[in-house]
Amino acid sequence: MSEESLLNDSLREIVVGSVSGAIGKIIEFPFDTVKVRLQYSKSLTEPLFTSTLDCITKTYKNEGIYKGFWKGLPSPMIGASLEASSLFFSYKIAQDLINISQGNRINTEIPFGQRLLCGCFSGITTSFILTPVELVKCQLQVDNLKVGQANYTSLGHVIRTVLKQEGLLGLWKGQTTTMVREAGGTAAWFGCYEYTLDRFKGDKGPDYEYKAHELLIAGAMAGIGYNASLFPADTVKNVIQTSETQKNILGVLKKIYLAHGIRGFYSGLGITLIKTIPASAAMFYSYEQLKKLWN
């Protein structure tokens, strides 16, 4: 493959990944807000919500639709674009490096186990971009729940406050748990997607054109795999990023377990699985369609 083709492939992954990531984020964001609020609620001595439905009802009643469910959307939309482009780009780069090391042509399909390793590499790489974005997102999503504190007025307000109180590294609070979640979660994300497509393709050959419903189902399975695989890590990460007092992993683990047991680490999983099906399906479908248009 020529250098020009490599450059075109890389640029395609970045641009197409960015657009598809933004599409997925718009769909999933209100569900994500409920999930983060449930996780934050579980970290308190007296939880604010008794169930997912209670959280939705109170959020709508007290804050309305946009301020309640879509507050803080610009940050994760930008972040989702960066995240998705980084995920698809680094996933492709990892596969290319494996092919080069084995003396294969670039774009040669590698074994499924090696694709899982590429997904893990992609998640670790992307976690460094994702942590500060999710920190800002989570702060805004629970901001209205914090009594006696001045609400954030903008993304810039959150960033300035964090920088003032904790310095530059404060933006990467929760990096370890984000990395753990992304390493395993992204391997499951790409793994479930590739495995489902492999089942649809069967022995039809490498030139098989996937049908729309097959891409949507594979995308939905990818989202389920990602969120179900390491959800407790996501819970701990969100508590660290939203709590004023809980700063370390062991402290958060102990507090949640003593207060709520194992189930406390899975607070918000139901709403997360509901939101990930349409969001991940739309994201992968748009990714594949945009790749065709690019070519």
Task: Characterise this structure.
Its main location: mitochondrion. It is found in: Mitochondrion inner membrane. GO terms for molecular function: L-ornithine transmembrane transporter activity. It is a multi-pass membrane protein. Helix content is 75%, strand content 0%. The longest helix is centred in the N-terminal third of the chain and has 40 residues, at 3-42. The chain has one domain (3-294): Mitochondrial carrier domain (Mitochondrial carrier fold, Alpha/alpha barrel), CATH 1.50.40. It has 11 helices and no strands. With 295 residues, it is mostly helical. α1 packs antiparallel against α11 (269-294), α4 (74-101) runs antiparallel to α5 (112-142) and α7 (175-201) runs antiparallel to α9. It has helices at 3-42, 52-63, 66-69, 74-101, 112-142, 155-166, 175-201, 212-229, 231-242, 249-260, 269-294.
